[in-house]
Amino acid sequence: MAKMKIKKNDLVQVISGPDKGKQGKVISVNTETQRVLVEGVNRVTKHLRAGQPGQASGGIQVVEAPIHVSNVMIVDPETGKPTRVKTRVETVERDGRTKTVRTRVSVRSGKDL
User: What's an example Gene Ontology biological process for this entry (predicted)?
Assistant: First the structure.
């Protein structure tokens, strides 16, 4: 299974589907199913039965549903447009030790994410 380049709290834009063009913050990431939950995107109605623990009463609730990670792209912080992500690997020396540091970088502008 490939590693996902999208993390929690990233600003993403939907690139396909009914919500195409919408932007939102990633609420959660599920690596097993390759899906992300984006704030304000892919909203569905959920019917709740009365008397559930933690719920005062039943009714209809509108919640976000997961969307596949291939349908979203990270938004470039500089331009505000969707961009691909690459990884920059650097070696840093501290106290005589060398350490490898990986940083996510925007392909569009070259800025760190």
Answer: translation
Secondary structure letter of residue 96 according to DSSP? T
What contacts 103, CB < 8 A, 6 or more positions away? 87, 88, 90, 112
Q: Dump pLDDT digits (tens) for 24-83.
A: 999 999 999 999 999 999 999 998 888 767 666 778 889 999 999 999 999 999 999 999
Question: Does 86 lie in the same domain as 70?
Answer: no
By residue count, the chain amounts to 113
Where in the sequence is the domain holding 97, given as residue range(s)?
80-113
Q: CATH code at 44? A: 2.30.30.30
Kindly state whether residues 38 and 62 are assigned to the same domain: yes
Q: Residue 36 in contact with residue 25, Cβ under 8 Å? A: no
pTM for this model (two decimals): 0.81
Instruction: Give the per-residue pLDDT at 12.
Output: 96
Residue closest to 64 by CA, chosen among 32, 33, 25? 25
**Dihedral sign for Cα atoms in the order 78, 85, 38, 70:** positive
